Amino acid sequence: MPGQATVRPRVLVLRALGLGDLLAAVPALRGLRRAFPGHEIVLALPPSLRDAALATGTVDTVLPAQAPGRGVPTLTGWHGDPPDVAVDLHGNGPESHAALAALGPRRILSYASPSPAPADGPPPVWRREDHERERWCRLLEAYGIKADPADVRLPPPSRPSPAPGVVVVHPGAEAPARRWPARHYAAVARRLVAADCRVVVTGGPGEEELTKRVAEDAGLGAEDVLSGGLPFAELSALVAGASCLLSGDTGPAHLAVAHGTPSVTLFGPVAPQLWGPPADPRHTALWHPGPPGDPHGSEPDPSLLRIGTVEVLAAVLAHAGRAETDGLRPAEASHRA
Q1: Where in the chain is the domain with CATH 3.40.50.2000?
Q2: Torsion angles phi and psi, residue 244, rounded to 5
Q3: Looking at the chain, which terminus has fewer C-beta neighbours within 10 angstroms, N or C?
């Protein structure tokens, strides 16, 4: 009828995980955006990541969806007609596939029970050895959708950095298995300050005590601590304007990659070949190979603990463009840490 609004078909994407997971999926989301230019792209993920999801420029709408741990949420918030296409970027099923199938989409793109299977080849096969960015691009390519795993960059933040040029030290992580000891972060931060770097310590919600301890042990003041979970816009601007980011394998490390910020990322239970930054001189992934661990474990992973303060300090100084100034030899620095 004349004047009647046209309802756009919708693509529903399930990726109800963390910030790092969202950013690792950006290449796949960008491929979907190009493949369905006339569709509304709806991303199901935790409500705390709404601003981050919209900042990627790949989605139109966010559907709040969250489950304890890394579980599969129910998608009861979906209203209206079934999705035209549902895309499972959450896992290899069957739970995530079933959550999408319950909405009655015309088509599901998934590693689990593809319906229908790709017309031009066999169903995609989940491979444990795939890098996370490559995994989801390969899924889409099985369905004829081009996606480039290297297409990771985000648009520049719309606001200035609250602390331009600093070295950002982010000692926290969702699970203890991926947390390098606080005393090691403090030792590196203390030496960075001695090398004329300004250091800012950041943390997520609930990490106030951790960031306070690292800052105090490093001789930093309260003004050098930004903890409690910065709003995404502020965190994005801080990381984008930093001289270097030091962290474990967690969300801010992926944000540094997205903004082209030099970074040093410490890996333990999961190899950087599976979750690390792309090959780029701006990014250093430190890892001492060992048996695969549990990235959600309750104790620091043994491989992570084998990373020493001296090698971390050297990597950060190289990225930050500084040289050590207090005259300590590496052996002395290591002993002091």
Answers
A1: 10-142, 167-336
A2: -170, 150
A3: N
pLDDT digits (tens, 9 = 90+) for 248-258: 999 999 999 99
Residue 305, Cβ density class (10 Å: 0-12 exposed, 13-18 middle, ≥19 buried): middle
CB 104 within 8 A of CB 82: yes
The architecture (CATH level 2) of 10-142 comes to 3-Layer(aba) Sandwich (3.40)
Close Cβ partners of 15 (under 8 Å, ≥ 6 residues apart):
21, 22, 25, 43, 44, 45, 89, 90
| CA separation for the pair 113, 124 (Å, rounded) | 10
Q: What are phi and psi of 83, to 5 degrees?
A: -60, 145
In whole angstroms, give the CA distance from residue 191 to residue 328.
Answer: 10
Is the model's pLDDT at 206 over the cut of 70?
yes
| Cβ 313 vs Cβ 333: under 8 Å | yes
Q: Which CATH code is given to the segment(s) 167-336?
A: 3.40.50.2000
The helices-and-strands tally (H runs, E runs) of the chain is 13, 11
HSE value, Cβ hemisphere, 13 Å, CA-based, for 18: 16
CB 248 within 8 A of CB 229: no
Q: Which of 89, 91, 123, 86 is nearest to 102 (CA)?
A: 86
Residues 311 and 287: beta-carbon distance below 8 Å: no
Closest CA to 192 of 38, 34, 329, 320: 320
Site of tokens 């966010």: 62
User: Which tokens belong to 254?
Assistant: 């992926």
pLDDT in tens, 106-144: 999 999 875 566 666 677 899 999 999 999 999 999 999
Taken in order 93, 94, 97, 100, is the CA torsion positive or negative? negative
- Tally of residues, the chain: 337
285 phi/psi in degrees, rounded to 5: -105, 120
Instruction: Specify whether the CB–CB gap between 109 and 132 falls below 8 A.
Output: no
Tokens of 234: 């502020």
Residues 317, 323, 325, 328: what is their CA dihedral angle, to the nearest 10 degrees?
70
Chain centroid offset of residue 222 CA: 27
